[in-house]
Design brief:
two-stranded antiparallel ribbon, TIM Barrel
């Protein structure tokens, strides 16, 4: 007589805990909520919303739209918004001088959002690439990105943002020593409560292309003396993981309150290693290329759009991330509240 399946091991039926929605929810190990999301948003100097071609469903917002979005974030339970500026190319120069303009688009947008919804946290990108005509995150001298002079400019930018009302400064440039310099400057100005979320492990990635369109970033060069072809001399090599832990350790020692891994989905192993090694609040950035891939596949009927959005975001939480910076934030928050 043939034995029944698993007769020798009657307890080993893993499917018991999957048989109905109620039990799946009850034993779920990772839970994604709107409180895990930071809304990534691009602001421009004009009126209305301007669609970004490579990111279906995403538009650059006017200052007025940003203020309305802050109220929307509050109603959806999204804790914070990350602001990135689109600057008119005619206003850019090699030094990114507008990066620390107290009357510029970033300061104006931050003030408008804090006035509209003071309960929503505002995070500002500390980097020069939206403001330089060459598209790099630092100052160029003889074809080389110079570290220390760039850090001085970043400190001025960070102080401007903090004084405008920004709650979290997020240096994304990957210059050495910038977290310590920013923290020291904040303390000296009596701005000790302003937080720093460092892009501690930011990789020189192919997944940033749509973002560069969204912010109108200067076109990187072809390796000429005037403009290096890529950002590999200051952003991390995507083959490395031990280096990421060293970068995170340095930024924590310099005063970062939170750390970030960028991009997100291709680097979930780095997220987990950082969380396990440091126990710090660790965030991941679901970058523009990740957004564009999901949307392109969904629009072609190759993926279920809603399920793919939530599954991708849940993966960050499962990897140990405290939260996710994502362009999907309002969409995901609505899905989670449905």
């Amino acid at each position: 007589m043939t034995k029944a399946p698993l007769a020798a091991y009657p307890a080993l039926r893993m499917r018991r805990l999957r048989q109905a929605d109620w039990i799946r929810r009850l034993v779920r190990e990772t839970v994604l909520t709107p409180a895990d999301l930071i809304w990534s948003m691009v602001v421009h100097e004009g009126e209305g919303q301007i669609p970004v071609g490579s990111m279906p469903g995403i538009s650059r917002f006017s200052v007025k739209d940003c203020a309305a979005a802050a109220k929307e974030a509050r109603s959806l339970g999204i804790p914070a918004i990350a602001v990135f500026p689109h600057i008119d190319g005619a206003k850019k120069d090699a030094t990114g001088r507008l990066a620390h303009d107290p009357n510029g688009i970033v300061a104006t947008a931050v003030k408008a959002m804090k006035d509209a919804a003071p309960e929503v946290g505002i995070m500002c990108d500390v980097a020069l690439d939206p403001f330089t005509d060459h598209g790099h995150d630092g100052l160029l001298e003889n074809g080389r990105i110079v570290n220390d002079a760039t850090v001085e400019t970043l400190v001025a930018q960070a102080l401007m943002q903090a004084k405008a009302g920004c709650d979290i400064l997020a240096p994304s440039d990957m210059m050495d020593g910038r977290c310590g310099a920013i923290r020291s400057a904040l303390e000296a100005e009596g701005l000790q409560d302003v937080m720093i979320m460092s892009y501690a492990a930011k990789y020189a990635s192919a997944f940033y292309g749509p973002y560069r369109e969204a912010i109108g970033s200067g076109k990187l060069g072809t390796g000429s003396v005037d403009n290096p072809a890529d950002k590999k001399t200051y952003q991390m090599d995507n083959a490395n993981h031990a280096e990421a832990l060293r970068e995170v350790a340095l930024d924590i020692a310099e005063g970062a309150d939170m750390v970030m891994v960028k991009p997100g989905m291709p680097y979930l192993d780095i997220v987990r290693q950082v969380v396990d090694a440091f126990g710090m609040p660790t965030f991941a950035f679901q970058v523009s290329g990740e957004y564009a891939m999901i949307m392109a596949a969904a629009q072609n009927g190759w993926l279920d759009e809603d399920r793919s959005i939530l599954e991708s975001l849940g993966g960050f939480k499962r990897a140990g991330a405290s939260g996710v910076i994502t362009y999907f934030a309002p969409r995901a928050a609505r899905l989670l509240g449905a």
